[in-house]
Design goal:
Length: about 110
C-alpha cells in the first residue's frame, strides 16, 4: 500500500465519537445514524478514502479529499439495512492511518 505512505504527510490522531453507534429497528427497515470524526492530534487530517463493510452502509459527509484541522470534527452520516444481525463497520483512511466505526444492530 505504497499509495498510503507519503513521507511528506505528517501523522495525526483521529477518533470516532462515539466509537460504537447502536441502531434500532425491525429486520426489514433501513435506518440512519451518525458519528463525528474528530482530529485530536496536532496536524491536519487528510481523508484518503471512506470504506464500508459488506455494502450495507452508505456513508456521507466525509469523503476523499476532506480535511479536518486539529481540534475540529466533521459529521459522518450513514444508512444501514437491518436485514442481518451482524455488526457493520465504516472505515476512514488518511495520513497513513485508519479508524473504524462499529455499527451495532438492535433488531426488534
Amino acid at each position: 500500500m505504497n499509495d498510503n505512505i507519503n513521507p511528506e504527510m505528517k501523522l495525526t490522531t483521529v477518533v470516532f465519537e462515539p466509537e460504537v453507534v447502536v441502531v434500532t429497528g425491525k429486520r426489514d427497515q433501513t435506518v440512519s445514524g451518525k458519528a463525528l470524526v474528530k482530529n485530536t492530534g496536532e496536524n491536519t487530517f487528510f481523508c484518503r478514502s471512506v470504506a464500508k463493510s459488506c455494502g450495507c452502509t452508505t456513508p456521507s459527509g466525509i469523503g476523499a479529499g476532506t480535511t479536518i484541522e486539529p481540534g475540529e470534527s466533521k459529521e459522518l452520516t450513514f444508512t444501514i439495512k437491518l436485514g442481518t444481525p451482524s455488526d457493520k463497520f465504516i472505515y476512514v483512511h488518511g495520513n497513513a492511518t485508519a479508524i473504524s466505526l462499529r455499527i451495532a444492530k438492535n433488531i426488534q
